[in-house]
Amino acid sequence: MKARIWIIAALLVGGFVAGTTYKRWSPAARLATGIDSPIWSGPSVARGAGLSVDENNNIEVYKQAHDATVNITSTVYRQNWFLEIYPSKESGSGFFIDKTGRILTNNHVVSGRAPEVQVTLSNGEKYKATVVYKDPVNDLALLKVQPRREAKYLPLGDSEHLQVGQKVLAIGNPFGLDGTLTTGIVSSLGRDIADESGRKLEGMIQTDAAINPGNSGGPLLDSNGNVIGINTAIYGPGGNIGIGFAMPINRAKTMIESYQSNKPYGRPRLGVDVIYVYGDLATELGLPEEGGLLVQQVAQGSAAAQVGLRGARDLVVIGNYQIGVGGDLIMALDGAKVDRIDSLSRVLARKHPGDKVELTLYRGGRKVKMTVTLGEASQDL
Description:
Elements lengths: L1 H21 L4 H7 L19 H14 L2 E11 L5 E12 L5 E4 L10 E5 L5 E10 L4 E5 L22 E6 L7 E15 L5 E8 L11 E3 L5 E8 L9 E5 H12 L7 E2 L2 E6 L1 H6 L7 E7 L4 H4 L7 E5 L2 E5 L3 E5 L2 E2 L5 H6 L7 E8 L2 E8 L1 E2 L5
Antiparallel strand pairs: 1-2, 1-4, 2-3, 3-6, 4-5, 5-6, 7-8, 7-10, 8-9, 9-12, 10-11, 11-12, 13-22, 14-15, 15-18, 16-17, 18-19, 18-20, 20-21
């Protein structure tokens, strides 16, 4: 009797297990019990990702600019302490500005005496380049190659009317990684910075588009694919920290015009250090509320010194700022109101040494006008 009970129990358990193992569940039941629940959530049908308007813009600008951007390697032969000759290499970027093979880049990319310059195109073609023109003050250089076919080139835009916040794109060869695109905005305008040799680079465009070693000389583009600057410097040593600087393209256009007309090219110089004050700060300093460029220093022997422009006579501290006061306030240049920090550098970018500029000054409680004949900045290498 006990044996029969054990046999029946075993059959019942076996049937339950067999039924559980081999039962055919409907798809709905399997999902309801969680048996076929997906590991991740998502659409039931895979589809290609849609691109936003901004993404499409990035893609179009890159397609237009990639083939016109080049890698530049400059080799200079130097001598060490043991009088042994060794090659020293600089690398950077550049871009074609016409179909005949002329290329814009930074002067520091091809600096040194009699450098051997090699240009590599996006398709891998290599060419020997000649340095045909230099502007060390603005860290610019013009190269020429003889391409086997018409070069794809970039249109030069206008850096005169840039706005803080507008979108920009940088293309170059950071760390030798050719054809790299980064995007960002214009972070500020009219920045004055010092290059590695201590020379001041005036009126630079600041951007948070990633710029790294190897980007130097490459194009900074607007959303229409026009070059509005030449990537020149980064803040501090090493790689990108979101603060990069580009030389406004209008400086390069002035250099190119001088080269094409066979006129001697020099950078005009007024010879003043200024800060931009307006609104409450200007009022606090006893100046008109509309403000302007407050002269801090006047360089000895400069055009500004020759006409008697006045620099600061005293220092005051307002908030966290130490400001020189007592100097002239430049309120207008050639009749145009000073309304931004780079107003002076923008005017100088359109002029040559020997040209005149009319200054409207606030001095001693009244406005006076003064005409200055511009000098020439040093072109020391």
